[in-house]
């Protein structure tokens, strides 16, 4: 089969090159549609804020984006594990760091790759940029120059300067350490610490642990030549000198005898089980080399069942991930206009993360990762997609800045925390939640278009994430050739190929179809022919429970795909009809659109049915539905047969489901602007802006979601087909690989729910 690394490499290249190259762009925040707009944004109007800033430099935060703008800056001398590849080649990494800043803390970033011939030249370049930015994130700069560069810039600049390679790992692993010593019942001041590695991150971690209470004399550090001891010679000014100790130990193995904590920031495979056996009882093992740790997690746990183990990997518990730190540290620092990120702010971040891990984990986090988390040896730091991290860490950092006098403005912390909770909305981890739920109990999913490259690429991700076991329909030789030719990473045994023309069950399926449809004009011969069609065959596999769900439709019209689903699988018992729904992952939160794909002919009953189904689906996503019945009329402002139909549907749904918040008829802008809604209709029954938007006809719903997706850049997941007896997903022809993966995850979750609740509770798909 194909080389996994090769496939991942191709995927990464395609990811970066597809569409607009790179991962970031600059987007105007003000309208620029008229000549007046242009005259305000630039000459002559722009002179006004210029002069206000000239008179009072602090006004720059009022009139420009500086207060939310961070520079991610590198000279490319220590890029990931790739070494000194230069500033130009480092640009994808710096863009990636910018994406994380934006996604997790809504901080804007300019990535700057500096071609400098010396550390001093680099310093001069960065220092000269101070008027542009609210903060500086140094990245991928080799040691020992990184220490010198950061220190000099902190001295010269009056904005936060933070080298994440040093301090990020220190803060996150420091939080893990605070909790590990509590669980292991060890005193932090008595810990015997051994550090494997002596680079920038290792030295920064060791220094930070001292700030947390570890005694400096209890830290033994090792580099590639062994223990940093007085028996060796070091040049003056070498950062390692701070950790040279007069100890008898010569090797890492020597140092680990009786050690309480191993901090690994070196290279893969450096630590053996025998070394761990020599450590003290109830040891703490942080093997953080990436991508592969000094000793792998399962081996460490098997060797020392009494240990707490953390790595940098996401596929094991206790991942030390820098994304838990830098976005939120900068968020807090920027919001109080801190002049620096000092030690107290870093310590506050570590304590905040440690404290958060001790709290009850909300269901949204458990669901996102597909397991229950509880504070203990397997959960000592929060998960990266925990939405609480932002409003937990940033306020702690802001408070420390205010307490230590480096903040230029004071915040009321309760109000600040509340503002942060609404900053990113609740949709950040939505799809990850369903991917994790699917991976918790994967199901068999059939893909009739098994020879479509998009399906095969999606199945590569689906198998890697353990979302489902794909069943590919089609000619086995053709499918296998496509997998080879496209170098798709589909490991043998992770999928099946079924050819309907040769499958032994085809005859039995044809007989079943004939019995069910003989009074609908389907003859025995037609049944045999239909079972050679992959879409019909796949539907029969679902109906006969050979598989748990179906994902299809890339190469068929929507109606031609739904028709065999209705004929073979049918509507769920108790459902009045089927309908199509889209999830719009808006920054302000999830929106549910219906009907977008199925019902052409509407009356008040149809509209009420659709609204009820979409509202129930919203509950499945953990959202309390607030239903808006949309029209061109606001609460009777226009008397017309079309608006009257919407008003009648609203009344019908209220009678049928008094437990739902339903309002209408109303215009779309009123539905999503709650203040406007209250001003127009103070007696509204909604308690906030609508999140379930029911369109008066299919055209309106279809147009609305496509315009939001294409022009508004709002991610759309769907179409989700509601009301089928078994999980059926019908894709659109322009469906992306990512959307196929997401829709497959939803299909699996629907199958899980069907299995868990055979009574016919509302299904997602």
From TrEMBL:
Name all Malic enzyme N-terminal domain ranges.
21-154
Which Pfam families does the protein's record reference?
A: malic (PF00390), Malic_M (PF03949), PTA_PTB (PF01515)
Q: Which family does it belong to?
A: In the N-terminal section; belongs to the malic enzymes family. In the C-terminal section; belongs to the phosphate acetyltransferase and butyryltransferase family.
Gene3D superfamilies referenced in this protein's UniProt entry, alphabetically: 3.40.50.10950, Isocitrate/Isopropylmalate dehydrogenase-like, Malic enzyme, N-terminal domain, NAD(P)-binding Rossmann-like Domain
Which InterPro entries has this protein been placed in? Aminoacid_DH-like_N_sf, Malate_Decarboxylase, Malic_N_dom, Malic_N_dom_sf, Malic_NAD-bd, Malic_NAD-bd_bact_type, ME_PTA, NAD(P)-bd_dom_sf
Q: Which controlled-vocabulary keywords does the entry list?
A: Multifunctional enzyme, Oxidoreductase
| Malic enzyme NAD-binding domain span | 166-402
| Organism domain of life | Bacteria
Extract the SUPFAM superfamilies matched here.
Aminoacid dehydrogenase-like, N-terminal domain, Isocitrate/Isopropylmalate dehydrogenase-like, NAD(P)-binding Rossmann-fold domains
Name the UniProt record assigns to this protein:
NADP-dependent malic enzyme
């Amino acid at each position: 089969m194909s080389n996994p690394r090769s496939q991942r490499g191709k995927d990464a290249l395609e990811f970066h090159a597809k569409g607009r190259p790179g991962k970031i762009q600059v987007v105007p925040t003000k309208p620029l549609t008229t000549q007046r707009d242009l005259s305000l944004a630039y000459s002559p109007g722009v002179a006004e804020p210029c002069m206000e800033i000239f008179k009072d430099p602090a006004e720059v935060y009022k009139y420009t984006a500086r207060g939310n703008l961070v520079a991610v800056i590198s000279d490319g001398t220590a890029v990931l594990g790739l070494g000194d590849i230069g500033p130009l080649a480092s640009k994808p990494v710096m863009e990636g760091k910018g994406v994380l800043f934006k996604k997790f803390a809504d901080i804007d970033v300019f990535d700057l790759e500096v071609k400098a011939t010396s550390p001093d030249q680099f310093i001069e370049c960065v220092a000269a940029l101070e008027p542009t930015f609210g903060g500086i994130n140094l990245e991928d700069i080799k040691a020992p120059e990184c220490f010198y560069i950061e220190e000099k810039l902190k001295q010269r600049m009056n904005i936060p300067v933070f080298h994440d390679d040093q301090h990020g790992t220190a803060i996150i692993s420091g939080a893990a350490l605070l909790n590990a010593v509590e669980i292991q019942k060890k005193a932090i001041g008595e810990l015997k610490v051994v550090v494997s590695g002596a680079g920038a991150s290792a030295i920064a971690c060791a220094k930070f642990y001292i700030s947390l209470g570890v005694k400096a004399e209890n830290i033994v550090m090792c580099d590639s030549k062994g223990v940093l001891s007085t028996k060796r010679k070091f040049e003056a000014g070498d950062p390692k000198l701070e950790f040279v100790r007069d100890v008898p130990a010569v090797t890492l193995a020597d140092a680990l005898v009786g050690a309480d904590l191993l901090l690994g920031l070196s290279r893969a495979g450096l630590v053996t089980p025998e070394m761990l056996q020599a450590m003290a009882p109830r040891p703490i093992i942080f093997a953080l080399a990436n991508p592969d740790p000094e000793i792998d997690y399962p081996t460490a746990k098997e060797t020392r069942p009494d240990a707490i183990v953390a790595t940098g990997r996401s596929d094991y518990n206790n991942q030390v991930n820098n994304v838990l730190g830098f976005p939120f540290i900068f968020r807090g620092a920027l919001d109080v206009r801190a002049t620096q990120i000092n030690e107290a702010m870093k310590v506050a971040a570590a304590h905040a993360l440690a404290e958060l891990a001790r709290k009850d984990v909300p269901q949204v986090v458990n669901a996102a990762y597909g397991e229950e988390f509880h504070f203990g040896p397997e959960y000592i730091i929060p998960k990266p997609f925990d939405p609480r991290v932002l409003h937990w860490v940033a306020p702690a950092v802001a408070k420390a800045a205010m307490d230590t006098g480096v903040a230029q403005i004071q915040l009321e912390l309760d109000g600040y925390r509340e503002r942060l909770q609404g900053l990113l909305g609740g949709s950040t981890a939505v799809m990850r939640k369903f991917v994790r739920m699917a991976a918790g109990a994967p199901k068999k999913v059939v893909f009739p278009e098994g020879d479509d490259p998009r399906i095969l690429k999606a199945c590569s991700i689906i198998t890697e994430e353990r979302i489902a076991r794909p069943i590919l329909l089609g000619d086995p030789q053709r499918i296998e050739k496509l997998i080879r030719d496209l170098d798709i990473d589909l490991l043998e045994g992770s999928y099946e190929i079924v050819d309907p023309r040769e499958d032994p069950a085809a005859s039995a399926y044809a007989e079943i179809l004939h019995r069910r449809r003989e009074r609908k004009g389907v003859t025995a011969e037609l049944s045999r022919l239909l079972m050679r069609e992959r879409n019909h065959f796949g539907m029969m596999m679902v109906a006969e429970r050979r598989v748990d769900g179906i994902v299809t439709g890339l190469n068929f019209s929507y109606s031609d795909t739904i028709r065999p689903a209705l004929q073979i699988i049918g509507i769920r018992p108790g459902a009045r009809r089927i309908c199509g729904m889209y999830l719009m992952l808006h920054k302000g939160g999830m929106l549910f659109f219906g009907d977008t794909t199925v019902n052409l002919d509407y009356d008040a009953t149809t509209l009420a049915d659709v609204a009820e189904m979409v509202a129930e689906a919203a509950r499945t996503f953990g959202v309390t539905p607030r239903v808006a019945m949309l029209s061109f009329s606001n609460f009777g402002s226009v008397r017309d047969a079309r608006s009257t139909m919407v008003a009648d549907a609203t009344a019908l749904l209220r009678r049928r489901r008094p437990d739902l918040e339903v309002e209408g008829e109303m215009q779309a802008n009123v539905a999503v602007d709650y203040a406007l809604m209250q001003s127009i209709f103070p007696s509204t029954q909604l308690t906030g802006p609508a999140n379930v938007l029911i369109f008066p006809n299919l055209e309106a719903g279809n147009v609305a979601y496509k315009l939001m997706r294409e022009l508004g850049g709002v991610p759309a997941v769907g179409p989700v087909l509601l009301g089928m007896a078994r999980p059926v997903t019908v894709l659109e022809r322009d469906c992306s690989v990512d959307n196929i993966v997401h829709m497959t995850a939803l299909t699996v979750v629907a199958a899980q729910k069907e299995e868990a609740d055979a009574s016919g509770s509302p299904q997602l798909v």
